[in-house]
Each structure stands twice: as structure tokens, then as C-alpha cells.
Automatic annotation (TrEMBL):
Residues 333-465 form the GGDEF domain. InterPro entries: Biofilm_reg_signaling (IPR052155), Diguanyl_cyclase/Pdiesterase (IPR012226), EAL_dom (IPR001633), EAL_sf (IPR035919), GAF-like_dom_sf (IPR029016), GGDEF_dom (IPR000160), Nucleotide_cyclase (IPR029787), PAC (IPR001610). Residues 474-728 form the EAL domain. Gene3D superfamilies: 3.30.450.40, 3.30.70.270, EAL domain (3.20.20.450), PAS domain (3.30.450.20). It comes from the Bacteria. Residues 17-87 form the PAS domain. NCBIfam families: GGDEF (TIGR00254), sensory_box (TIGR00229). It comes from Komagataeibacter diospyri. This is C-di-GMP phosphodiesterase A.
Length: 739
């Protein structure tokens, strides 16, 4: 039976004809395939021809197994027949991600949905499959997973080889037929294969015996992309005899210009396009450089600054940063926060002692990690409290996850010679319903966990009526903010940024301040979240740009030359394609050159993969306006797109500078970030400098620019002018402020 006849049975004829529906299916942008009761293809639209790379004439009337990967073809009919007979199947009626090859050999990732259709009086069973090409989305997600895993490994007490093995294994799983390798050079230019779990032993032995000449090292230094001459050209015959057909690679260069090694990706298949393998190699470069230069030191630093030293999970400070960035995404962002509190942990701690109690907590962390997906965020906030953030979590899904948590943790646990029976309580809060910021969400989840504990053991509770108070406060603040913005009650204060080596003024950062007649001073972290929630953030951003430009003109007229002003913009602004034109007109109106303005972006912009955002960023940079990455290093996804965005500046977050002069780990991670900036040609600004010792250490590390209370707090324009003239008279802006 042809597809049109099938549609005659399934369409209400007076309303829509089968020919119309068939034409619509043929012109659909998503690939569509229909098979009959004998599993033969009876419909194959133009979009299906494109995604499979097969002409319709070649597949029509053929068994549908011709479209599935070769390894799955033998049993494919049996799966369909079982569903046809019983109605039971894992795929039909659901959506799942599948991988297959086009006719030209190129790998494609698709989202496949299959529907079962019963046709005619005889009840024949047909199937309609709809495929959506999600190759690019899948690749972006894999890069984020790669980055998250490697960064967490770098924050743990592991060796360079272990980090390299993990990186190579993940890359091997991302690139079909891929064999990744991390090669290092010693002082004598001898090559050693540090990591490559999938490399044939004969090829590893051949590479391990290689020693580069000074001329080869010079060539790699001047052209890192020429590394195939070292790891492939002289060994391609051996490689092909072992099933390796092609190679993508790049030399790893230190910030001092030293050639440290090569990251290579060998391919078992003769791929028609090397775009994806080359992108993976490029993504791995920053990780390889960091791992080689700062491996041991950075392990301890990341453990202290971002991760709980006992369990390896995110600590409370990092959790706050991650939550705030999730909130700053705006749009329809929503997530649930689960706070897990172990029952009777104090008794466990007293009975087992601290060592065994630590082992107990490590095992609880492992059980939680075994339940979560890659996109979940897991933290130990201290003591026996664990926190999990689950994106896009419905109420029903939250209930199921809480039950799974409670049941998994409740399994008997062997610690030393003791078998423990465990229970826990779970408190759940949700964004945006239960609060506009991380503190509110954590407090409400904690209160819900306490309520669960009061009600009994092994229970979960959702955050209660407190959310009404939060909503009312948000409504009140939103109204007051709108009124204040209209009446010009917001102000900009400016914090100087000083060049470390020359003592000159690099620029200032513009920071919004709000003093309300009745509410008093309201912190930016509070009113910016309200502005996001109430749709006022774009108006505040436009006002900030206007005010900064106006102030620069006034300073110029008064003989106060501020080279550049940095203005913070929210992720929302960068989804507006009119932003570059707005900035260009603003600069033209005030007769300012583009280099006088720098736009600061947050990590939420980095994580936004929309084409609009990326196009806006590049359009701004084409104006010659600076682009700065704010709070660099506080999240776990900064590096994945760092090299792909047109940034001119990165700012090291103040959290790395706290106790900087006494913390060698913080010094080392700062040096690593300065190295990243140096390699990528970006200016590095360190925030939060408060002591002269921090200043001297940053000077030794060759940090470009410093900003902090040591030199000046954020100042109103008149006070900044006074500050400027005093330092100008002394001949340097590197003068500590007297407190």
C-alpha cells in the first residue's frame, strides 16, 4: 500500500485530503520516513534525502534497516515486529538521540521520534519516523561535558597522566573512530606519549623513540598547526597498517613561548570533513597547557577555591556563583534545588570518629553522584549537607528525584567494621517561584529540610509559604526601581584600574548604585536580580552606557583623561541585534573613539550558544569597542568558549585574591590565568586588590592591570576627579589609599 493510501485511512476526508497531507510531509523541514507492515520504506521526503545522503529512488521499497547503522541491522526487524505484536518497545512513542553515518561517511547526530499508526479495517501497523538534525547541539553539549570533567579532575589530587587519560578517553568517545594522544617533550626534545589509552602499542613505541631537532622545535614554535610533520608525516605508513588513516594535531605552547608537547587526534576512518576533529583539538589546547604548566599546584588551588577537599564536590562559595549565573541567564530559566541532610550524623561522627565519618561522607557523595546527569550541579556545603541543582525540573520530576535520593542513601553502608542504617531528609526550593537569588533559594531549601526532619525520617518537603513574601518584596522593589530609573535616582560610581608595570591609569569600571529615599541603599546584587525579573535590565544597561559616555566627555573637558570606561551589561542585552548600532550611535553622538569604551560580559553570556548572542559580540568587537570577561574563574564553563569569542580582556575574580599573599595555591592559579591571557593576547585585570603584598605579588606575576580598594573604592565622579589629580601630581597612580 502506498503512503497516500495509508493517509486515506488516517485522515478525516472532508477536512483535509491525503494528497494535501502527503504534500505537507514532503515539504517538511524535518526528515520523515514511513514504513509499511513489511518494514519497507513507502515514504522518504526531501529532508530525509539530505540527512541520510541517499536518493529516494535508492531506498523506496527497501527494508528500513538500510537506514540504521550496520551493527544494528541484523536485529532491527525483530525489534519492530515485537512492537507490532505486543505494543512494547523502548523507542516507539518516545524521543531519543541516535548517531549514524551519511552515505558519504560523515557522522550525524539526530533526535528520532517514532509513532505507531494502525491503518484500515485489517488493523495493519505502520510506523512514522521523524528525525531532527541535532549534530551541532550535541557537539556543543559534549564540549561542555568535556570541560566540566577535566576542570573537576584538575581540581582533584590526580596526576598529569590521569588527567590526560580522562581527556583522551572522552575525546575518543566524542569522535567516532578517534584515538586521542597527549605527547610531551622533555628538556632534550625527546617525545613521550603521556596519555593515549586507545593508541596501538607499536605506534606508541615508534613515537616514544623520537627525538626532535632544534629546527623542528623552532618550526613548531612559529607554527603550532604544523605539528603533523612530527606526529604523522614520518609515521603515516605504520599508522595506516595499524588502522589509523588521518591525523589532526596542534603543538602546545607555554605562555613563555616554550614548546611543551603536542595534542593529536588520530582517525581510524577516512573522514570526509575534519571540521569536528579540528574543533575538538582546538578545544583541548587550553586544558593541555594548563595541565602541563600547573598540574600539581592547580589541583590544590581548585580544591581550595572551588571544591570541597573531602568529597571533590563543589563547595558552598562555588555553588553560590553557579546558582547566580543560572539565575542571570534570564528568559525561561528554571531549576530545582535539593538540600540533603543526613539524619543523626552527629551520632555517627561521635561513634565512628572523624576518620570514619569522613569516609562515610565520601560514600554519600559517591551515591549522589551516581544518581545525577552531567548537567546537574552537586555540592557539599559543609558538615552533612549536600546540595543538588537540577535544571528544567518539573514538580513531578522533583518528587521522583527526591524519592530516588532518599532510597539510594538509605542503603546499608559499611564503614570499617560497622554496618550503618542511614536515612536523610530532603528540602526542595525552585527558581523562580521561591526566590530571586541563591541565598533565598538555599535558605528556603534548608527550612524545608528542617520541616521534613521534624515530620520524621526519610522524607522530603517543598519550600512553603515564604515564597509569597519573596514575591511581594520583588514586586515592591520592581516598582520602586522603575520609578527611580525614571526620576534619575540611579548613579554610577567609578573604580580605577591601574597598570601594574607603568603606574599609569588603565581605565575605570562603572558600577551602578541605588539609594532610595525610604528603602535606603540597595545592593546591586539585589536590584539587578529584580531588574532581570521585571524586564528593566535593558533600560538600566542603556542608561549606564549613556551616563558613562556623558561622564567621559565631561572629564575630558575638565582635563581628566580616563582612557576607557568599562560598563557591565546583562546577558539579555546581547540577544538584541540592535545593541551594536546603539553603541556606535552613542559614541558618535559624544564624539568618542571606540577604544574609550569596554563592555563587560558575564559567564551567562559565555554559556549562551545562540547565534544572535555570538553575532552581537562580534559586531561590537568590529566597532573596536573592548570586550571583557568578568569574574573569570568562578564558574566551570568559562574555558569552553573563551578562545571562540572576540574578547580583549579577562578579569580575575576577587575570590582568588582573598588571602592571596598567604596562599601559594591562589598565587599559582592566578599565574595560570595570566598565562591564558598572555597566550590569547588578552589584557588580564585582577579585581579585589587590597594589600601592598598582593600588589607586589601580582607585579612579580606580570599581571597587566590591578583594581581594588588598595588604590580606590568605587567613587562618585567628583571624588574620582580629585583622586585623579592627586595621583597625577605624584606622577603615578600606583599609590595606596590611606584608610
Amino acid at each position: 500500500m502506498c503512503c497516500a493510501n495509508v493517509l486515506e485511512f488516517t485522515v478525516d476526508q472532508p477536512k483535509i485530503s491525503a494528497d494535501v497531507l502527503l504534500s505537507a510531509m514532503e515539504q517538511a523541514i524535518d526528515p520523515m520516513v514511513v514504513i509499511d507492515e513489511h518494514n519497507r520504506i513507502i515514504f522518504f521526503n526531501a529532508a530525509a534525502e539530505r540527512i541520510w545522503g541517499l536518493p529516494r529512488a535508492q531506498v523506496m521499497g527497501q527494508n528500513v534497516s538500510c537506514l540504521v547503522p550496520q551493527t544494528d541491522r541484523a536485529l532491527h526487524d525483530s525489534y519492530i515486529d515485537r512492537n507490532r505484536e505486543t505494543g512494547i518497545g523502548r523507542i516507539v512513542g518516545t524521543s531519543r538521540e541516535v548517531e549514524f553515518r551519511r552515505a558519504n561517511g560523515e557522522y550525524v547526530c539526530g533526535e528520532l521520534s517514532i509513532s505507531r499508526v494502525q491503518v484500515g479495517e485489517a488493523g495493519r501497523i505502520y510506523y512514522i519516523a521523524v528525525m531532527k538534525d541535532v549534530t551541532e547541539q550535541s557537539r556543543q553539549r559534549r564540549i561542555l561535558i568535556l570541560q566540566n570533567e577535566v576542570l573537576q579532575s584538575l581540581a582533584s589530587d590526580v596526576t598529569l597522566q590521569e588527567v590526560g587519560d580522562q581527556l583522551c578517553r572522552r575525546v575518543d568517545s566524542f569522535v567516532p573512530g578517534g584515538v586521542a594522544a597527549l605527547l610531551m617533550f622533555d628538556g632534550a626534545h625527546k617525545v613521550s606519549v603521556t596519555s593515549s589509552p586507545g593508541m596501538p602499542n607499536r605506534y606508541r613505541t615508534a613515537l616514544d623513540s623520537m627525538q626532535l631537532t632544534p629546527e623542528q622545535m623552532d618550526a613548531l614554535r612559529s607554527d603550532p598547526a604544523s605539528s603533523n610533520t612530527v606526529v604523522w608525516d614520518g609515521y603515516s605508513s605504520l599508522a595506516r597498517s595499524l588502522g589509523l588513516e588521518r591525523c589532526c594535531s596542534s603543538a602546545i605552547i607555554s605562555r613563555k613561548g616554550q614548546v611543551m608537547g603536542v595534542f593529536a587526534l588520530y582517525l581510524r576512518d577516512d573522514e570526509p570533513s575534519l571540521a569536528w576533529p579540528e574543533r575538538v583539538v582546538s578545544t583541548c589546547m587550553p586544558f593541555c597547557a594548563l595541565a602541563i604548566e600547573q598540574n600539581q599546584t592547580r589541583q590544590h588551588i581548585a580544591q581550595l577555591s572551588n571544591f570541597d577537599s573531602l568529597t571533590g564536590l563543589l563547595n558552598r562559595t562555588s555553588l553560590h556563583n553557579v546558582i547566580e549565573r543560572l539565575i542571570m541567564r534570564g528568559g525561561d530559566s528554571q531549576f530545582s534545588l535539593f538540600m540533603v541532610d543526613i539524619d543523626r550524623f552527629r551520632d555517627i561522627n561521635d561513634a565512628l570518629g572523624h576518620v570514619n565519618a569522613d569516609r562515610f561522607l565520601i560514600e554519600i557523595g559517591r551515591r549522589i553522584r551516581a544518581l545525577v546527569n552531567d548537567e546537574y550541579i552537586v555540592s557539599r556545603s559543609g558538615g552533612d549537607e549536600f546540595i543538588i541543582v537540577v535544571p528544567d525540573c518539573s514538580h513531578r520530576r522533583a518528587e521522583q528525584f527526591a524519592e530516588n535520593l532518599i532510597n539510594s542513601i538509605a542503603k546499608p553502608l559499611q564503614v570499617g567494621e560497622n554496618t550503618l542504617s542511614i536515612s536523610c531528609c530532603v528540602g526542595i526550593s525552585t527558581f523562580p517561584e521561591n526566590g530571586p537569588d541563591s541565598e533565598s533559594l538555599l535558605s528556603l531549601a534548608d527550612a524545608a529540610a528542617r520541616q521534613a526532619k521534624e515530620d520524621g525520617r526519610g522524607l522530603y518537603r517543598f519550600a512553603g509559604h515564604e515564597k509569597n513574601q519573596v514575591a511581594q518584596e520583588r514586586l515592591m522593589l520592581g516598582s520602586a526601581l522603575r520609578d527611580s530609573l525614571a526620576r534619575g535616582m540611579l548613579k554610577l560610581h567609578y573604580q580605577p584600574q591601574v597598570e601594574t608595570m607603568t603606574g599609569g591609569l588603565y581605565g575605570v569600571e562603572a558600577l551602578s548604585r541605588w539609594h532610595h529615599p525610604t528603602l535606603g541603599n540597595i545592593y546591586p546584587s539585589r536590584f539587578i536580580a529584580v531588574a532581570e525579573d521585571t524586564g528593566q535590565i535593558e533600560a538600566i544597561g542603556r542608561w549606564s552606557l549613556q551616563e558613562a559616555c556623558r561622564q567621559m566627555v565631561k572629564w575630558d573637558r575638565d582635563g581628566v583623561h580616563v582612557p576607557t570606561v568599562a560598563v557591565n551589561l546583562s546577558a539579555v542585552h546581547f540577544r538584541n541585534r540592535a545593541l551594536p548600532e546603539y553603541i556606535a550611535n552613542l559614541l558618535k553622538h559624544h564624539n568618542l573613539t571606540p577604544d574609550r569604551l569596554t563592555v563587560e560580559i558575564t559567564e551567562s553570556v559565555m554559556m549562551d550558544n545562540s547565534s544572535d548572542t555570538e553575532e552581537v559580540l562580534y559586531a561590537i568587537r568590529r566597532l573596536d569597542v573592548g570586550l571583557s570577561m568578568d569574574d573569570f574563574g568562578t564558574g566551570y564553563s568559562s574555558l569552553s568558549r573563551l578562545t571562540r569569542l572576540p574578547l580583549t580582556e579577562i578579569k580575575i575574580d576577587r575570590s582568588f585574591i582573598n588571602d592571596f599573599e598567604h596562599d601559594t595555591n591562589a598565587q599559582a592559579v592566578t599565574m595560570a590565568v595570566i598565562g591564558i591571557g598572555s597566550r590569547l593576547g588578552m589584557t588580564v585585570v585582577t579585581e579585589g586588590v587590597e594589600t601592598e603584598q598582593q600588589w607586589r605579588l601580582l607585579e612579580e606575576l606580570h599581571c597587566d592591570v590591578m583594581q581594588g580598594y588598595l588604590f580606590a573604592k568605587p567613587l562618585p565622579p567628583e571624588e574620582l576627579e580629585k583622586w585623579f589629580r592627586e595621583r597625577q601630581e605624584r606622577g603615578s597612580f600606583l599609590v595606596p589609599t590611606k584608610v
